[in-house]
Amino acid sequence: MPKNRKLDRPVILGIVGDSAAGKSTLTAGIANVLGADRVATICTDDYHAYDRKERAANGLSALDPRCNHVDILEQHIRLLRDGHPILKPIYNHSTGTLDRPEYVEPKEYIILEGLLGYSTRAMRDCYDVKVYLEPEEDLRVAWKIHRDTTKRGYTEEQVIKQLEHRVHDSEHFIRPQRTFADMVVSFYRPEGQGEETGAKLNVRHTLRPTLPHPDLTPIVEGSKHGIRLELARDTDGKPVDVLDISGEVDDRRAMAMEDLVWNLIPEASHLRDNLGRFTDVNNTQATSHPLALSQLLITYHLVKAALGHYAV
Amino acid sequence: MPKNRKLDRPVILGIVGDSAAGKSTLTAGIANVLGADRVATICTDDYHAYDRKERAANGLSALDPRCNHVDILEQHIRLLRDGHPILKPIYNHSTGTLDRPEYVEPKEYIILEGLLGYSTRAMRDCYDVKVYLEPEEDLRVAWKIHRDTTKRGYTEEQVIKQLEHRVHDSEHFIRPQRTFADMVVSFYRPEGQGEETGAKLNVRHTLRPTLPHPDLTPIVEGSKHGIRLELARDTDGKPVDVLDISGEVDDRRAMAMEDLVWNLIPEASHLRDNLGRFTDVNNTQATSHPLALSQLLITYHLVKAALGHYAV
């Protein structure tokens, strides 16, 4: 077992959200912080029961649990959590086909990202940290059109049509999972700006008391700009902390928050260099304080879980 | 639970043997006796880790455990035994490719047939009945050439070359599994005859005391022809019963043995009509006493296991 690790099984992070909510980007970012060789990534899309043609024929969307081997996904999470390998199915997003499965061994950390990761109780019980991604809807639509037309071989018209067809399934199957997350992470544009991606987006974290979040009061006290923490009621009326980080936050304040959180997990200080990089739409490396601090807060919980602090 | 069934999990039959030993034919026959809707069939070839091209490149034969996801096979048998579904990989024998996996639910009976079914202790512990198929070697070679050239797209030359290449792996990985079987079933030709398939083959059952075999003494006593039972030493020196059934056994004697065994499992008498049919090389339905009686002896144990007689 690596030093500073107490938990004798993989730490499991869930990243759930609607199509093009930014799951893969966040997953890649977190995996990069932890070190790719220590992380196994599972995408729940791989558990589609039907290929693209079959879905077109039977009229089911990929968001519908009936369109997915949810029981097998559940079984595989449990197996990985118990330290066993799995033979993971593969859904090929480029071709829309189901390909030969791949052998996956559990690693120190497992990130499970996808549409339906919190859809059953047995599944939810497996996670150490549950994140739900909920970007501003216009932003998600823009991201989806960009991705599906450039990487998945759809036309813009097809994507827009698909979005319309999926409204029902999205509301019924995806969004209800928000309530099970320890953290809801929402990227959104500064008011009045059309900026779609990149460094200037703000982020809002809705922090539920289901995890012991780090005490950020020292750096947010008395602050009016950049980073704000407020007690609030969530959309369901439940009490939550709401953390707002502006894309315009100055480097000094962002660094102060980074320092504060890293100092709470000195065991993981060597990971600090890997934080906050992402590849923007122009395929250039960029950094963003809201993204870096979001990755950091999630990493904080993963490190704490690995140290056994959240073990029952 | 169906009537007359006591065991609260699937009954698992193993049928192991070298390539073209007749595993699929026996599996299909037994499934036919029990009723196809009550049987799930798993072929261990589906757990190949490499497709045909990759095997040609890496020089491993399909008989080599390193060429197979043995740990996943083990996991899947255990899951099915515990009543859980699996997402089973698929090896396509026609194309030599690994295809999209299929969802398999456990049924009352599970037949696991293939090259490596008894290769680990954890796997062996899952079976209720373990059969090893060991036809006369010349017969197996003839069967293999016939099948691989007609159904798997190989030339006769390729098959012969493959057989030569596989001698080592066959000796090291397949044949050692014989020792774990409750029954070794060997079809062989009548002396001096070239008959390769069909009704006139004899069969020899080597019956190990690891299962309580039915008492056949009433029908074999004093008999010199057709059906013989003898106490013998197995190739490893261990005491066994050897049951020989001639392809030339007359209908009356064969029927007497059928009656005797069916009377020991009255709960399954409705299955009797399904016994002993097979499709011969000319794709015509045929019956053979040695085949029918072999199927019956195996069915006997499966029914007894389902009734809970072999439960610990």
Automatic annotation (TrEMBL), chains A, B:
Keywords: ATP-binding, Calvin cycle, Kinase, Nucleotide-binding, Photosynthesis, Transferase. It comes from Roseospirillum parvum. Residues 12-186 form the Phosphoribulokinase/uridine kinase domain. One of its GO terms (biological process) is reductive pentose-phosphate cycle. One of its GO terms (molecular function) is ATP binding. It catalyses: D-ribulose 5-phosphate + ATP = D-ribulose 1,5-bisphosphate + ADP + H(+). Pfam families: PRK. PANTHER family: URIDINE KINASE (PTHR10285). Pathway: Carbohydrate biosynthesis; Calvin cycle. Its EC number is 2.7.1.19. The keyword Disulfide bond does not apply. This is phosphoribulokinase. Belongs to the phosphoribulokinase family.
